[in-house]
Amino acid sequence: MAPAQRVLVSYSGAQAFLSSGSWDQIHTALLAQLPLRNIHWKSFSRPIRTIQELDISLVPLESLRDEHASQVPATLLEKPFLNMYLVTCEDADLETYKTTIKRQVKDWHAVVSSRKNQEWLILHVVRPDARTQGGNFFQLKGSVLDKLKGDFNTDRRDRCVQLAWNAGSQNPAVWAEFLNKLKDGLLSSFDSAISQREDEVKRSESQRQMPGWNFCTFFTLKESLAGSFQGVNLFEDALVQYDELEASFYQVLKEKNLSWFGSLITPTPNDDSSPLLSISKKPYRDLILANTISVFDFRIYLLARQCSLLAKIDGRINEVSKKAAAFLGAFGRRLSEVETLPEYFVESWIYSSALSVVDQCDTWAAGLNLQGAMLSTFNAGKGELLELARHQLDVIGVKIGHLPVRPPFSNSHHPPSSSGSATSDKKISSADILQCLQTSDAFYDIYVGITNRAIDMYAKAGRRKFALKLHGSLAALDVHRGRLAAALTTYTSLPAHYAPHMWTSLESLMLSLALDTHAELDKTRDREWIHILLSFLKTFVDTVGLDLLMHEDDRVEYVSRLVQSMKDSATVLESDLSHPEHPAISIKVASAAKLAGDKDGSFLDVVIHNNLPCVVPIDEVVALLVGRDSERLRFSAHIDGVTPGKTQATLFCPTSSAGTYILDSTEARISHLVLQWAHKKPVPGRKALSRRSSVALVRIPRDLLAMDVRLQQPNSIELGRPSSLLVAVSTGRNNIAKASIKFHVPSVTFRYSQVALTDGNTDQDTLQADDSSISVLNLSEASHLEFLIPYSDASAFHAIKVDVEVDYITVAEPSITRTLHLARVVATTLPISVNVQDFFRGNRLFSKFTVSTTSHQHVRISDAQLQFPDGGLDGLKVVACSPQARSVVTVTPAQPANFLFYLDSANGPVGESLKFRISYRMLREEVEALIETSVDQVLAQSADVLGERVELINKLVEALEQDSAWVELYGVSGELNVPDVFGELGEADEPLKRVIQSLHEHRHPHPPKGKWREIIIPVDVPYMNIVAAAGIRLLPPTSPVPMGSEHTPSLYAGQPIPALLTVHTSFHWGSSVNDTQRAYMMRFDVEEMVREWLVSGRKRGDFAAKDNATYSVPLTLIALHHGELVLPKISVTALPLAGEVTMGSMAIPNTETYQVHGAEKVLVLPRGGRSTFVLGMGSG
């Protein structure tokens, strides 16, 4: 049965036409329309099927005239599905049709209609211009086509079709009707033939239990059905038939009724090397018909048929390799039980068959466009076949001694028994296997070649695990062949590929083999060896040592030897070797540290978990904490190994920094090997190195007796001079031998060489400095040292954050250098602001200073003075207008303080600056100092109670911070009532009760005591070219004397009141002493008060002003209503100076005018009657 068999369509006609050139043209044009496409087969017994393409063979009917009566079931395609008769007769020649053509067609019809499952079709070929037009009612005689239909369409089915043919026609539409009729006829014949054959198969299968039933006959019958489906390109239906045949064979095999077969296998030459999927290597069909086919040959034939169909079905070519591999594995085991086969027959057969299937799959896939997952699966299937072939080499190699009896070549400790018998007279024929049996070099070349092919297929398929496993087997082969260097390279490179996929067992095996290979090479156990060992220990821990593919029996002893060797190797390293995130050891820290108590530093408890089954010789354990601004603390402790399980240890850090820190990392040191673990939370978007999902926080309490450095503004600040910081060093419990202090602030430079004690001296025995640091020497415990350090201008900042780094050595522990990192914030702005207002009154200048706080804190001011410069000033007198016994003033954010001074200058303007000195302290500083004094009075002054003193002070300060109700009473009287936040106090709290009582009884002392800060602000005395005193004096009509005497006459509303306007000018405060000789043109202007006064006279005018001169102008005022009235104000301004220009405009002298009568009011009485007055309107 040829797999390329086509559907047969016979044709017949008048011999003269068939031998003419016209038929040749029609035949050629008809073949051009083939194959038929998109044929839809609708069957009652199955879903609709679509035949994409159908090849047809046109054959003369005469060549098929003799029907075969063979008993061997053939495919349905061996007989034509449709018989076609060609008629050439014009409608005008109906007589010829009646006399000749009709008889010829009738004879043909009688022959073909008697054949089963064959359709017929009459094709009427005419010229295009002679084509019959249907529906011509007036055509009396009818056409040839009508005659054909009437004579032969007897079953209501139209089997006659007309073809309008022209030799030059290229229009496909000409063939449309004919092709549709052709498809219908083929489908009808095929459907009936298939139904009949299926009935025969069912009938044969139903007789299975009857005597005489033969499986091979049944197989041939059902295979004919599969061949028929395959012939019309219905490959899936054909495959179903073979699958059902396979199931039937398994049933026969289950029933152990193999009488229709020969033996299980009858080996013939080349059976072990022939292509597995070839159906032409043996006459399989003849063997089946003769009931002599062996089970071996039958199974191969059935597999070949199935695989060839799978290759033709879209998307199912990948099943070929799977099906072949499963068949080779299963049937190979069955053949291994046969002892009469030639030696190594089964291995040779599986090897050759697997390789042949790979080659056949490549051939079938050459015309396919495999992509994506399909291509990966295809390559994976070939890789499995290649690995199956390689496994046969494993069996042969172990048997003949080319390979060792151990994994990965053999899973048992004994050599496997090869298939077949060495005494058999038959031999295998596979060339590769024969070469492998002859020489080891040939074996190794073939072995490596087939392995590399499998690796390549697995790599293309994305099956890294399988490819890497084969790489490992090649490394094992290198070990066996003595190529240790190459094996070591392979073993060390493979684990990196296993780790991302969590293939721990394979990773462990490769690492274990790498260690063994390293030992066989007798190489130095260097850093590379340590890394290999650590990777192996990681795999041991990850699987708890249970699933590892280890070759050592005593795992604990094996690991113990490795760990000890690692310690020995780490000891001889020249530098530290770091290894991150190793799971063999895990360190968990406590959430809070404990103060050392008798020295600076703190203890941190940790739990070390050893996940290995042996002691790990750890020398030191370290925990690194990170705080604000990357401040780092290092806790460490030396230990003597860690036993399996949990071990507790206490780490110590000599630094006394307090606060909450993040556990950054932990370390375990084994000589020069440092195992590290990161604990900080990873950056978003970056893969975490650690398995910990949360951040570990460690709180370190504040050590009140530890070394401390505080920064603040100096006690005395003078604006205009270089800035400096006051540094206060407290030793606490420590006797300091030496301390080095450094300050770090971005964009600010500290001048270390200019450091000085607060008293201005530089004691070389206590304080030393260089260009980069300050050294403090020989300070005893409980000492307090203050010094000033200048720094560059930082006025652009409201505050600066100073990172203080202190390295200090105590007398008690001279071998330990403690490092203290502190972050201090120091305000660069002053705590108070000063505004000044100046008032000129003749030769006297009044200055009002308003002092406000720049923060939310209260400021206490004890004194404010306006002082002369250091050299003094002649002729200048400064007098404070406030009372001499003024008490301390408290400045709050809502209530500033005012200080008033006046200056008398005998010599005119003051050219030098004065100094405004303020003595102040913050309310918090005053209260804290008061609390410290009260505590010192209660507690004895000794180092033994230093801790209790600091604790008591902090407790009281915290209590005051919680409630501010005490502030107002303290500001008035000095009584300090501590808020009741302590609850009920017992006998142990007696010092606290006594301090609270002492604070309650406190009163502000006079004069104030304690330490005060001071700010010195330079004050410039302003200049004023002209000081004008403007006034209006009323002159009663009856007296030329101005009002102001004891007998002032009464004034009435509406009464004219004479007045005198005076402007007194002084040039005393001018910018130059020579200003007193000048004259300025000035202008006065009387305020319009239309609701109170009617002003008559010269209300505006210019005059020449001179030093200490008075200009007068008479006015008349009329009160418009009664009551206490304010006199009109007078505006006096200077006019531009002629000939003097300032900044492009005419110069105008500075002028300040004050109203002499500004505080006066005039009582105007109501008038009862009417009076007439004659007013003088002036002299001119």
Please tally the β strands and state the result: 48
> Based on helices, strands and strand pairing, what is the structural class?
alpha+beta
Span between N and C termini?
Answer: 152 Å
Provide the β-strand percentage band: 25-35%
Helical segment count: 23
Helix content: 25-40%
Q: Any idea what the radius of gyration is?
A: 60 Å
State the low-pLDDT regions, or none: 135-140, 683-693
Biggest sheet record: 6 strands, mixed
Mean pLDDT comes to 85
Shape: elongated
What would the keywords be for this entry?
about 1200 residues, alpha+beta, six-stranded mixed β-sheet, five-stranded parallel β-sheet, 23 helices, elongated, TRAPPC10/Trs130_N, transport, Trafficking protein particle complex subunit 10, TRAPPC10/Trs130, DUF7077
Structure description:
The relative contact order is 0.03. Helix 10 packs parallel to helix 12 (372-400) and helix 20 packs across helix 23 (990-1000). 31% of the residues lie in helices and 27% in strands. A hairpin with a 2-residue loop joins strand 15 (659-670) and strand 16 (673-678). The chain is elongated, with a radius of gyration of 60 Å.
SSE map:
Blueprint: E1 7-13, H1 15-18, H2 21-32, E2 36-43, E3 46-54, E4 56-60, E5 82-87, H3 94-112, E6 119-126, H4 144-152, E7 160-164, H5 176-206, H6 215-231, H7 235-254, H8 284-289, H9 295-312, H10 318-335, H11 345-365, H12 372-400, H13 431-438, H14 440-461, H15 464-480, H16 484-498, H17 504-521, H18 527-542, H19 555-571, E8 577-580, E9 585-589, E10 594-595, E11 602-610, E12 620-626, E13 632-638, E14 645-653, E15 659-670, E16 673-678, E17 697-700, E18 708-712, E19 716-718, E20 724-730, E21 736-744, E22 756-757, E23 767-769, E24 774-779, E25 784-790, E26 799-810, E27 818-827, E28 832-841, E29 844-853, E30 859-867, E31 876-880, E32 889-891, E33 897-905, E34 914-922, H20 923-938, H21 946-962, H22 966-973, H23 990-1000, E35 1013-1019, E36 1026-1034, E37 1051-1052, E38 1056-1066, E39 1079-1086, E40 1093-1097, E41 1100-1106, E42 1109-1119, E43 1123-1126, E44 1130-1134, E45 1141-1142, E46 1145-1146, E47 1151-1155, E48 1161-1165
Parallel strand pairs: 1-4, 1-5, 5-6, 6-7, 8-16, 19-35, 36-47, 37-48
Antiparallel strand pairs: 2-3, 9-11, 10-11, 11-14, 12-13, 12-15, 15-16, 15-17, 18-20, 20-25, 21-24, 21-26, 22-25, 23-24, 26-27, 28-29, 29-33, 30-32, 30-34, 31-33, 34-35, 36-38, 38-42, 39-41, 39-44, 40-42, 43-48, 45-46
Helix pairs in contact: 3-4, 5-6, 6-7, 7-9, 9-10, 10-11, 10-12, 11-12, 12-14, 13-14, 14-15, 15-16, 15-17, 16-17, 17-18, 18-19, 20-21, 20-23
